[in-house]
Design goal:
34% helix; 99 residues; Histone, subunit A; 2 strands; mainly alpha; two-stranded antiparallel sheet
Length: 99
Amino acid sequence: MMERLKIVSKERTERLAWLAKIELTEEEKVKFTEQLNKILDSAKLLEEVDVGGIDPTFHAIEVTNDLRDDVEEDSMDRKDALANAAKTKDGYFVAPKIV
């Protein structure tokens, strides 16, 4: 088994908690630091796997897209499309300004 690395420090855990806007007790900081290090140790084991001669793949199983034919159809009537809108103006949806 490989040597256990301490990749995540308690200070790094505190910083992550601050970025996530969560408050941690001292006990939780210690616990989460240990858990994060265990997770990273597990991921580090993957570097030891010999993948020589294995073709790269994006999916473990074959993936195919079942798409329908692109057939032009009549659109919904504008009046029906706007029927449940909270606000409309001149035949268009009105939404709050975001920028």
